[in-house]
Amino acid sequence: MSTECTFPAATILGYPRIGPNRELKRAVESYWAGGIDEAGLQRVADELQDRTVARLVELGLSAADSSIPADFALYDQVLDATAALGALPARFADLAGDDGSVGTAEYFTLARGDGDRAPLELTKWFDSNYHYLVPEIGTATTFSAGAHRLTATVRRQRQRERGVVLRPVLVGPITYLLLAKAEEGSPEGFDPLSRIDDAVVAYVGILASLAEAGAEWVQLDEPGLVGDRGGELAAPGGLVERVYRQLAGTAERPALLVTTGYGTAGNPAKPGEALAVLATAGVEAVHADLVKGAKPSTEALQALGTTRLVAGVVDGRNVWRNNLQASLEVLEHLQGVTGTVVTAATSTSLLHVPHDVQAETALPEHLPAWLSFADQKVREAVVLARGLDGGRPSIAAQLQDADAALRQRARFDGVVVDRVRNRTRDLTEEAFTRGPAERRAEVQQQRLGLPVLPTTTIGSFPQTGEVRGARAAVRNGSISQAEYDQFLRQEIARVVRLQEGLGLDVLVHGEPERNDMVQYFAENFDGFAATEQGWVQSYGSRCTRPSILWGDVSRPQAFTVPWISFAQSLTERPLKGMLTGPVTILAWSFVRDDQPLGNTANQVALALRDEIADLEAAGVAIVQVDEPALRELLPLRSADHQAYLTWSVRAFRLATAGAADQTQIHTHLCYSEFGEVISAIDGLDADVTSIEAARSRLEVVEDLAGFGYSRGIGPGVYDIHSPRVPSEQEITALIRTALAALPAQQLWINPDCGLKTRGYEETVVSLRNLVAAARTVREGTDIGEIEHALAHS
Ligand code: MET
Ligand SMILES: [Zn+2]
């Protein structure tokens, strides 16, 4: 290792990879479709990488001092680590070359599967909306040191004119194994982390090859230490210390920066302990998330000695302009207490935010000055470093600008709206409570007269090229609003007729007017703004464009009612009104950072409550409020779960509890891992809940029965995540599985989720089979009796 290991005064942990115009997304998809070959894809990726480096230099990072991270995954950074380690599950063993390395085609096979081989599973990356590919580790998994892509990147940049020195980024060994799941067939209770020693050997090899390629620093990301296991692992004498002693003790290596992020690493009651442990182990620089995590204690700072502290004071997760004054105070404090050497940095990679506020042309006038996307955040880190070095006068103008923007934001009309505040303040317990569930079920059945095992869908119908085309056409002005509305009415009428023809019991309008289930609400609520170019990577080549919740939220006028009542006017059967729930709206937007999330959630809830009241007034008898993100926002530490579940469940209840007993409230959740949240789901007090269940072959019904869940439940019997058509027999068998655990009166028959990503061809056949299966089961004598009883109650 070089004895000179100075670290830059400013850095970022990572930068959006997809490209300002989603160049990488397009290139990767074109490669999959056979439009370009591997060399073509590599050319686009290299060009983008060069432009990123140039842009970061323009923003103030140096090309020569390791301040620019090399985190250019083609699909996912965890998949990159899997490929670098050659740690493939047995079903993909043939994808590795003799030296354990994985080529480009094989890399994508891991991500997408082939033939009968299922791809690696996708899961949320910590509490973000980014999804990574889960490593599968078993007792026999082999680990090799094949970080060829990363070393090639480092080498290629070093060989450029004037030589760019990047800082390669890799998921650290402990986090890698914490994020893994046990490979199928592993012994009961097998913990992937038990393979740490073999993994470390491979990391030692990777460090050596990166040093040889010319890397002076390497960044190992260990955000896994913020979870429940972090406290024990990062305690003095624990696994973190042992592993990093080994890595730091190797001769051939670049200097090491270990990052955490997404909260306080290690024991939350001893902030900074994990950093001190890493320093003791011999790591040259440690990073702490000072936005979501706690400030390290003085004791921990003292223990850092000469180890540099990379201080994450610029929020990598949100889009608000930094309070430079406050950040500088934090940095000065850290530096002042113990003489710790401090770098100004982001709290996480900037992967979670869009590229550049400057690319937006249609934001409300007041908003751009309050915002900071990736490029602005790079500048913030650079400015803070300058201020820390040169004192406040050296950045006086920037401090003043940031301060002025913050003050303007705080008093802006719309950020605080008295009318909205008064409503949330004056809420009594009554606003959160409906009548008794049994009584509701009774009056709803009287009103709806549904058969036993009622069939329905989750809301959206296939969004065909025609639907997307019409939306694009009205946006670019080639058709008028009136023509577009007419098109939507035709589409809705077609979907309603189709469902009647199929014989579904509760119909939907199909959601053709919605570009996205959250953005559509953001566009119709006050307090939100949508971006044009604000794409962030969700997984692989998929990006989302979260809206920005900047002010107090309210609903100026009913907006779903016209579509829902039009659809209802076309049929005698009950039609469900479709809304997105408060927690999901928050989870999939950038939310304001100046008040507790629970307060914001209640404002959104009241806006939805107004919409439900208008739907009821229009004669709608069933309203579904989707909360697919309820479980997603669950805090990383179990100690924090209860507080979160309390405010999120209350927000849902506030949205729905204004509904009359005769109005049936449905909710939909897209997952079946109910375990830890089952009582929260019970707490939502929805009359009917649909969930994903087909893939796990309805395992969840046992849990529900064990819990004593007593309201309506629709475990999905049709997996909509693939074009595969489930047969009538197969669905019949699933319904019988459900019936073995739960009473027929409680069960609904529906798919796992909305149909918007499916094609009509498979959808129609699948739904026909679903209706036929429900009928077949209904005709079983015992159930026939129940139905008879229901009809006469
Ligand atoms: C991700 S959950 C989706 C629910 C929505 N109602 C739909 O059907 O598309
Ligand atoms: Zn869903």
From TrEMBL:
Binds 2 Zn(2+) ions per subunit. Zn(2+) binds at residues 668, 670, 692, 753. This is 5-methyltetrahydropteroyltriglutamate--homocysteine S-methyltransferase. Residues 453-775 form the Cobalamin-independent methionine synthase MetE C-terminal/archaeal domain. Residues 10-337 form the Cobalamin-independent methionine synthase MetE N-terminal domain. GO terms for biological process: methionine biosynthetic process; methylation. PANTHER family: 5-METHYLTETRAHYDROPTEROYLTRIGLUTAMATE--HOMOCYSTEINE METHYLTRANSFERASE. Its EC number is 2.1.1.14. Belongs to the vitamin-B12 independent methionine synthase family. 5-methyltetrahydropteroyltri-L-glutamate binds at residues 25, 129, 542-543, 588. CDD domains: CIMS_C_terminal_like (cd03311), CIMS_N_terminal_like (cd03312). Gene3D superfamilies: 3.20.20.210. Its cofactor is Zn(2+). L-methionine binds at residues 458-460, 511, 626. Keywords: Amino-acid biosynthesis, Metal-binding, Methionine biosynthesis, Methyltransferase, Repeat, Transferase, Zinc. L-homocysteine binds at residues 458-460, 626. The active site is at residue 721. It is an enzyme of class 2 (transferase). One of its GO terms (molecular function) is 5-methyltetrahydropteroyltriglutamate-homocysteine S-methyltransferase activity.
